[in-house]
Design a protein that fits this description.
Elements (H helix, E strand, L loop, with lengths): L2 H45 L9 H4 L3 H8 L9 H19 L14 H52 L5
Helix pairs in contact: 1-5, 3-4, 4-5
């Protein structure tokens, strides 16, 4: 076997190995991303949180920007990370700020009755934003997974195209 044919064979083996690694990584990223989405949806669904209905007092009492963000999901059950972020930032946060006159939990006097509201609201908001974080990581994993699958397939095809077009002799 000539040196050139040995190099060509090595090139094909390396190309196939890289292709398999990219395809496997893409598959794993997709599984992890969709699992993350499923877990967030499952956990949020267990809470039975529903956005206020269109025209409801809870929706109409919000400032214009927050009202528009929340109205997009009016009447829907909160089941996605994207919805969790909207509910946390445009509904809970607005109500906490209203109840505490714009103060944080740490800024309120220990005897202030609004302190319990701030703690509860901030805790719920933090939990929902954590769900949003998990959802976002899952989304990036899904996008990356599809990208790796495309790269793996392209690498596989290019390995054989380059091998076929390479000179047979030097």
């Amino acid at each position: 076997m000539s040196t050139l044919s040995q190099l060509r064979r090595l090139f094909v083996i390396i190309g196939i190995a890289f292709s398999v690694a990219l395809l496997a990584g893409g598959g794993m990223a997709l599984v992890l991303g969709y699992t993350s989405h499923d877990q967030v949806t499952q956990q949020l669904s267990q809470e039975h949180i529903t956005f206020p209905d269109k025209g409801s007092e809870g929706l109409n009492a919000l400032p214009a920007g927050d009202k528009a963000a929340v109205a997009k999901y009016a009447g829907q059950e909160l089941t996605t990370g994207t919805q969790a972020k909207v509910y946390a930032d445009n509904f809970i946060w607005v109500h906490v700020q209203e109840a505490t006159n714009g103060k944080s939990y740490a800024q309120l006097d220990k005897a202030d009755p609004a302190r319990a509201t701030a703690l509860t609201g901030d805790t719920l908001r933090g939990m929902l934003l954590s769900a949003y974080f998990g959802w976002t990581i899952g989304t990036y994993a899904i996008i990356g997974g599809f990208g790796l699958l495309v790269l793996g397939a392209a690498m596989f095809v290019l390995t054989f195209v380059a091998n076929r077009r390479a000179p047979q002799t030097l």
